[in-house]
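Note to self: user wants both folds in one dump. Writing first protein now.
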Amino acid sequence: MATYVVGDLHGQLPLLLDLLRKVLFDKRQDRLIGVGDLLDRGRRVGDLLLFLYEAWQEGWFHSVKGNHEETFLRHRGGEPLPWYTEPEFGGEVTLDFFGKTEPKMAGKLEDWLHSWPLVWSDHQTIVVHGSLPPVPGSRFGDINLCTQRLSVTGRSHECLELRPPSLFPSWDGRVVVSGHTIVRKAGFWGEGIALVDTGAYRTGVLSAICLETGCFYKVSGTPV
């Protein structure tokens, strides 16, 4: 059994399929964990969501929530967020997919997105989209603060927004795996923090880490 944590996908289904083939992913025994931000920007957001929804039903895919999922859900809830549909944020493609999807299925997908936790963890690893919020007066973060601390705007969770240099290792020594911040090459950033977002929607490079071995993997292609 192997557990892979994959970087921000933003609709890049072909790259994900290439990555699964590269690591010889076995759906019967392996697991895939997303760091969030499956939505927006890429043209195949809908195809990616449907593929991974089925994978979740089969038991081999889980994801933590990213800032793009949280923003989408706030928008769907009626909060005025005009910047969500701006080209840089890329929400128009997600809204278009949900607008064309049969309402019952759209509701199931929206409920699924609502169910994503802010963090995923086991005895060795913590997966969070941005960073663990810092413990006041220390250089460490705490998983328990993710649900408690809001960003400076007071609208989203702090753990979805933090970027370097504001990344904090876990106080208990578990490795923290994060996305959100695009890096040229996936790898470790400082003490006990692995960054896996190589900007697939922009660079065509999708990366992941295997939790059991600590090895990083990547595939390259044309973003869609």
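First done. Writing the second protein, which came from a different request thread.
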Amino acid sequence: MTEDRPATQPRPGGLWRPWHFLVVVGLVIGDLTTKSWAWQFWNQGPQPVLGDWLSWQTVLNPGGIFGLGRELTLPLTVVRVFAVVLLFWLLGRQPRENRRGSWTLSLLLAGAIGNLYDNLSVWMPWEGNGEVRDFIRVDLGAQPGWWPDVLPWLFHPWPIFNLADSFIFIGFVLLISGLAVVDLNTGKKEALE
């Protein structure tokens, strides 16, 4: 007998559970559906949705977040492939009790897959040129008088984004703020028990 743990005790790090799959697939479908919808109906200049501060405007982004790295589409695609693999692995190793961490990893994974889908379109049979499709435009207007001049006002307009970008942004905010924690030591715990 090599295992001291009773057979009925759950493993500290579980494999993918059905809800992981459903959440990630649902978010990816939502991202890809809204991108397709935007390109079908709003493939033109800004179309107001809620006044001047929210509109649809389709743009192609060959780079990373906020359009940075426009000449680095291929390296960014490779990084996204590795990120998806890492996120799959981390999500499958989270303890059952770490629901916030699992939800956060699901958001990050869905966002990475949604944007990677667009990147891979240059090599795959689906339509696209390898650039990420963005369509949500937020513009909070000119810098208000109370805003300190030493800080840049980024909201006139905010860089155009998509749902996948939103998932990634929310996931990073949850991790950086400490509201969600990813358990990186699951394998070590198993080995010690």
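Dump finished. Worth passing along: The chain has one domain: 23-141+155-181.
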